[in-house]
Amino acid sequence: MIRAYKFILRPTVQQAAALVEMLRDHCSLYNGALQERRDAYRHVSKTTVRYADQSTQLKEIRAFDPECQGRWSFSSQQATLRRLDKAFAAFFRRVKAGERPGYPRFKGIGHFDTVVFPKDGDGCRWDSAPNEAVTRVRLQGVGHVRVHQHRAIKGRVKTISVKREGRRWYIMLACDEVPTEPLPDTGAMVGIDMGTVHFLTTSDGGHIPNPRFLQTSSEALTDAQRRLDAFTKKRKAKNRTKKHRVAARKVAHLHAKIARQRVDHHHKTALALVRDHDVIAHERLSIAGMTRAPKAKPDPEQPGAFLSNGASAKAGLNKSILDAGWGQFLAILANKAESAGRRVIAVDARNTSRTCPECGHVSADNRITQAKFQCTACGHAANADHVGALNVLNRAGLALCNVA
Structure pTM? Predict the structure, then answer.
């Protein structure tokens, strides 16, 4: 089994400055490789430059610029070039699929926050030992950086990544050969229905409240963003004052805090479900499709004008869905279930809130309001989210019977 670990780094002042330089030079390498691909396609008879071509140039680049590019790990620079290659592969995939292409863009130093070391021992070394009081990681060009290791590492460390989040630095370890830790069987099976009013509702009738972390912090975030915008308008990007930098850090700090609160809530909720149930069923959700903005509706009577398409109401719903973080929660749930020897089943989400769990009648009229369900055939009345969770559980039971 593969597992990822994330720990806070405690660099000294000099090491923090070196980490910033490492990000800056890798960002410069990424942008230079992107510029080369753009120029080759535009000006050299639409020539395509690939990863292998740019990787072979690294030796020359490092020799030409030993103070910047030459001081960092060769493997980490190859990983940066692979990152660009993946961005182009995703771009061409979207073009073929008829989606919005999203051509790879140049990265600003404030938006390039991760450097990957593909192999432990090549440009980096995880120096954790069971008997040592202090854990350190050795990074080429930076030195031995102290790590706040709050839990034991299991398995074999394969990939090491350094990430900056606001003013904090993190080390992320990807480990394989991690042994599973099965929990005792409970004999229980549950279906869950994701929502925005309640974060989730179980087939047992329980509701997990939606903490709405973004909405709770919206006032402070709005004030911080307004202050940042005011400084941005006064000063050009190349002439930013100390107050502007402080305002930018405040916005980043609030966003990072919201993200940490959300992931902590997801971990605790998923852990409770995994501990109490052998099988957990949920809807197979297409979150990207659910949060897609509605298409514009041209007015046939007035050329150049558009009809109302409910974009404002949909924007509010999209914001609530993204604030809940369904995708992140389901990924965390799947990982914890795999580690504990539990089973997670994703079922078809169609009509789960419109199907009567008593008689099986399907109708849009069954859903009276967001919270109320009443079958037009048999009169069964219940909470709509509870009905959805029951239908999810029933479909999971059918899937298990078909497999058996």
Answer: 0.86
